[in-house]
């Protein structure tokens, strides 16, 4: 694919002010500052393992909690993925990964179908990961899948440590998205019987 697959997205509300750039054909470089340390760690891992270049700056109402920041970053990243993909001509469309981290094992499967659907059985034992509520893992990926028009599934095969489970999910998502967005020389046009995605 000769055309750069990049996007720059900004979103400002009374709760958050976010600027993001994404290059789907990057080298895994990232500069992340969401104000939520654990979330930054997850997004850095996502960029590195998906070989995406990602910058994100967010000022949010963290005096409330991490909800608006994490959810809105999902909206912006999902929008950037959708915009960077353009008409999706020539891509594999589907991607999946099973990723281990110590005792944790998580499956992620993606269809860049243009139809948003999210399904997950990720389960956490504690309410917090640093200053991020574990409930926000679901909210982030739900918001991202909706904004991207992506079918996104997670299955937790096993896991005990919340940090490991969450990191597995973000890295498996990165690997599945990298696979789904790659060019397939056998695909002419858009890979759909409908002719569009």
Compact overview of the structure:
With 197 residues, this protein is an alpha+beta fold. It has helices spanning 37-50, 67-85, 135-148, 162-181, and strands at 6-12, 16-23, 30-33, 53-60, 94-101, 104-111, 117-120, 128-129, 132-133, 151-158. Helices cover 34% and strands 30% of the residues.
Descriptive tags:
197 residues, alpha+beta, Ribosomal Protein S5, domain 2, four-stranded mixed β-sheet, 4 helices
Task: Give your account of this protein's structure.
This protein has four helices and ten strands. The protein has helices spanning 37-50, 67-85, 135-148, 162-181, and strands at 6-12, 16-23, 30-33, 53-60, 94-101, 104-111, 117-120, 128-129, 132-133, 151-158. It has a four-stranded mixed β-sheet, with helices on one face. Strands 5-6-10-7 form a four-stranded mixed β-sheet, covered by helices on one side. It has one domain (6-181): Imidazole glycerol phosphate dehydratase, domain 1 (Ribosomal Protein S5, domain 2, 2-Layer Sandwich). The protein is an alpha+beta fold and 197 residues long. Helix 1 (37-50) runs parallel beside helix 4 and helix 2 (67-85) runs parallel beside helix 3.
- Tell me the fraction of residues in β-strands, as a range: 25-35%
How far is the first residue's CA from the last residue's CA? 18 Å
> What CATH architecture do you see?
2-Layer Sandwich
Number of strands: 10
Task: Describe the global form.
Answer: globular
Mean pLDDT across all amino acids: 95
Quaternary status = single chain
């Amino acid at each position: 694919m000769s055309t750069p697959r990049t996007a720059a997205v900004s979103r400002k509300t009374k709760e958050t002010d976010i600027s993001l750039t994404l290059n789907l054909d990057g080298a895994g470089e990232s500069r992340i500052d969401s104000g939520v340390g654990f979330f930054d760690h997850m997004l850095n891992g996502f960029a590195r393992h998906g070989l995406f270049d990602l910058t994100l700056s967010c000022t949010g109402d963290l005096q409330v909690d991490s909800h608006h920041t994490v959810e809105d970053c999902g909206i912006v990243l999902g929008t950037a993925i959708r915009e960077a993909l353009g008409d999706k001509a020539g891509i594999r469309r589907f991607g999946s990964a099973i990723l281990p981290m110590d005792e944790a094992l998580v499956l992620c499967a993606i269809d860049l179908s243009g139809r948003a659907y999210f399904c997950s059985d990720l389960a956490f034992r504690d309410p917090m990961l640093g200053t991020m509520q574990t409930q926000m893992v679901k909210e982030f990926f739900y918001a991202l899948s909706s904004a991207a028009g992506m079918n996104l599934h997670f299955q937790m095969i096993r896991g005990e440590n919340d940090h490991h489970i969450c990191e597995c999910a973000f890295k498996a998502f990165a690997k599945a998205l990298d696979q789904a967005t790659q060019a397939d020389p056998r695909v002419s046009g858009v890979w759909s019987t409908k002719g569009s995605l």
